[in-house]
Specification:
This protein is mainly alpha-helical. It has five helices and three strands. It is flat.
Length: 198
């Protein structure tokens, strides 16, 4: 079928462009010192106080997976994919790309592969896929990043200034059918957040 082939080409182009963009950025910013011939790993821990960033980097990996799936799904839908197919393709494309980044880290001179990052990428991507597949839950919950430059950062850096990041899981009154039509109440939100200092 010509329409199916056309959609497959568009999907391939969209995913390919995303992967190429991540690879180009990675080569310029993350792996600018090059790669080694060996694969190395590190155990960074999770959210402990004794970890390098107190777990804010792990929350960041979950958020990256989440945002990747949400953006890719919306883009794929705009090109004619049905919501279920778009969510599935976005999940696998995002998870595959982020996993490839982690593997590249394992071969890089600057970084090392750690399974905690890979797990958190999957958690964020999985949560986004779940919300994409369940419109009622999507209306109720959000995963958000709040950033305010910390005193530890010399510039505005929402991706590297871990002390300035707050990751929020938000429940929205507008997602509750009994509350969404009450004028002021519908704007209320309850947020549970995670952030680190220093």
């Amino acid at each position: 079928d010509a329409d199916a082939r056309s959609l497959l080409l568009v999907n391939t182009a969209v995913i390919g462009a995303g992967v190429a963009g991540v690879a180009a950025y990675g080569l310029a910013k993350w792996w600018d010192e090059g790669f080694t011939g060996s694969f190395h790993t590190v155990n960074e821990g999770w959210f402990g106080q004794d970890t390098r960033y107190g777990g804010a980097d792990k929350a960041g990996h979950a958020y990256s997976g989440y945002v990747g799936v949400r953006l890719a799904s919306a883009l794929l839908q705009s090109y004619g994919n049905d919501p279920e197919a778009a969510a599935r393709i976005a999940f696998w494309a995002t998870l595959g790309t982020l996993t490839a980044v982690e593997v590249a880290d394992g071969f890089s001179k600057q970084y090392a592969f750690n399974y905690q990052d890979a797990v958190m990428n999957a958690v964020g991507a999985g949560f986004a896929w779940w919300l994409e597949r369940d419109p009622e839950l999507d209306e109720l919950l959000d995963f958000r990043l709040y950033y305010r430059k910390s005193s530890e950062s010399s510039s505005w850096d929402p991706f590297g200034d871990y002390s300035g990041q707050r990751y929020l899981l938000v429940a929205k009154a507008s997602g509750v059918p009994q509350l969404r039509d009450i004028p002021v109440v519908r704007y209320l939100e309850v947020a549970v957040g995670y952030g680190t200092q220093g």
